[in-house]
């Protein structure tokens, strides 16, 4: 019985590793340095634009010619700027074809990017954060893209796992 359990555990480990072998994480962080952002109903809104690049050494060298991005998420790190007229803060984040509007609270917020075409084709995507009401500090933003291994495609990553009898 003990040998059967060991065999099943080994088989589970092999199949578990096959399922995760096709994905690699490519993080890229933009350090805003604590920029004070403010927006009002009656004046201009502060905005910051930057480019995420997952093709550089710090991100792990994503290669758009041989790899695909399968998913991506952006995390923003914000801090409330307190003052006597500190009620609500609202912001807008534009990333590629995506636009997100939300009420800013102190802390972190994450968005999943639905449109990955630009990121997958070039390894870069532009982002713009705009304060639309209130004021807050923008500390940093991190993009975490999940891509296929070099030389594989999304179709390869989604290929069916063979049955145990096929492997034996």
Would you summarize the structure shown here?
With 168 residues, the protein is α+β, with helices and mostly antiparallel strands.
Secondary structure: number of strands: 7
Number of helices: 4
Cα-based radius of gyration, to the nearest Å: 21 Å
Structural class: alpha+beta
Mean pLDDT over the residues: 78
What does this structure look like?
This protein has helices spanning 2-20, 117-122, 154-157, 164-167, and strands at 23-39, 47-53, 69-80, 90-95, 98-103, 107-112, 124-148. By secondary structure, the protein is an alpha+beta fold. Strands 1, 2, 3, 4, 5, 6 and 7 form a seven-stranded antiparallel sheet that branches. The protein is elongated and about 55 Å long.
Short descriptors:
168 residues; alpha+beta; 4 helices; 20% helix; elongated
Layout of helices and strands, plus pairs?
Blueprint: H1 2-20, E1 23-39, E2 47-53, E3 69-80, E4 90-95, E5 98-103, E6 107-112, H2 117-122, E7 124-148, H3 154-157, H4 164-167
Antiparallel strand pairs: 1-7, 2-7, 3-6, 3-7, 4-5, 4-7
């Amino acid at each position: 019985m003990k040998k059967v359990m060991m065999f099943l555990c080994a088989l589970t480990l092999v199949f578990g590793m096959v399922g995760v072998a096709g994905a690699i994480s490519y993080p890229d962080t933009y350090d805003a340095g604590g920029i004070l952002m403010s927006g009002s109903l009656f004046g201009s809104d502060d905005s910051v634009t930057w480019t995420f690049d997952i093709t550089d050494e710090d991100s792990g060298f994503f290669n758009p010619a041989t790899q695909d991005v399968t998913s991506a998420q952006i995390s923003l790190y914000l801090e409330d700027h307190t003052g006597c007229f500190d009620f609500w803060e609202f912001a807008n984040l534009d990333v590629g074809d995506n636009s997100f509007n939300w009420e800013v609270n102190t802390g972190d917020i994450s968005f999943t990017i639905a449109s990955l075409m630009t990121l997958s084709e070039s390894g870069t995507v532009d982002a713009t954060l705009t304060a639309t009401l209130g004021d807050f500090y923008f500390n940093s933003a991190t993009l975490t893209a999940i891509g296929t291994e070099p030389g594989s495609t999304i179709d390869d990553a989604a290929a069916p796992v063979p049955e145990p009898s096929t492997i034996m």
